[in-house]
């Protein structure tokens, strides 16, 4: 019985180390999520993260089920699994709150991205309008320049003709 308990304790410590590694991986995923700016990529990572978290939760639930099935023959043995269950429960709660926080952050980032997309669309509309206005002004100026050149040419022609007539007179 003592060997079984020791084996269970070793396995729980191993699972706890695994849990800590998994929790570290979750934190790394979280860091990646904060760096991502595009909406579609953010959704894909969120789906992967949720799947991963579901797997972790299933592992924890399986471990809880195993703990419940262990024989509780001695008073001392009862206390240790309760501590472990409490620890696992706290870790699950911590994980869930972290998951909720990440969902909130993703939602906030999505909203911020949406607002930026709206701002970009508005700026693009204004830029397009200004471009059309500038093209119209440029066309008007080109027409005025052509008219001015024609008038200059007519003026020089009349002046030259005038000079010629004066010489004739």
UniProtKB/TrEMBL annotation:
Coiled-coil stretches: none
Keyword Metal-binding: no
GO biological process, one term: centriole replication
A GO CC term assigned to this protein in UniProt: deuterosome
Keywords per UniProt: Coiled coil, Cytoplasm
Cellular compartments annotated: Cytoplasm
Bias type Basic and acidic residues, positions: 80-102
Main subcellular localisation: cytoplasm
Location of region: Disordered: 71-102
KW Thylakoid (keyword) present: no
PANTHER family: DEUTEROSOME ASSEMBLY PROTEIN 1, SARCOMA ANTIGEN NY-SAR-24/CYTOSKELETAL PROTEIN SOJO
Protein name: DEUP1 protein
UniProt organism field: Pterocles burchelli
């Amino acid at each position: 019985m003592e060997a079984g308990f020791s084996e269970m304790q070793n396995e729980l410590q191993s699972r706890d180390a695994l849990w800590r590694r998994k929790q570290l991986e979750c934190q790394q995923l979280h860091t990646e999520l904060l760096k991502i700016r595009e909406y579609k990529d953010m959704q894909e990572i969120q789906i992967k993260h949720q799947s991963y978290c579901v797997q972790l939760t299933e592992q924890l639930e399986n471990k809880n089920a195993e703990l419940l099935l262990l024989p509780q023959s001695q008073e001392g043995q009862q206390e240790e699994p309760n501590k472990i269950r409490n620890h696992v429960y706290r870790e699950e709660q911590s994980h869930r709150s972290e998951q909720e926080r990440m969902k909130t952050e993703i939602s906030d980032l999505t909203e911020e991205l949406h607002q930026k997309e709206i701002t970009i669309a508005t700026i693009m509309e204004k830029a397009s309008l200004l471009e059309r206005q500038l093209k119209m002004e440029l066309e008007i100026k080109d027409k005025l320049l052509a008219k001015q050149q024609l008038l200059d040419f007519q003026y020089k022609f009349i002046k030259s003709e005038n000079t010629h007539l004066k010489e004739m007179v």
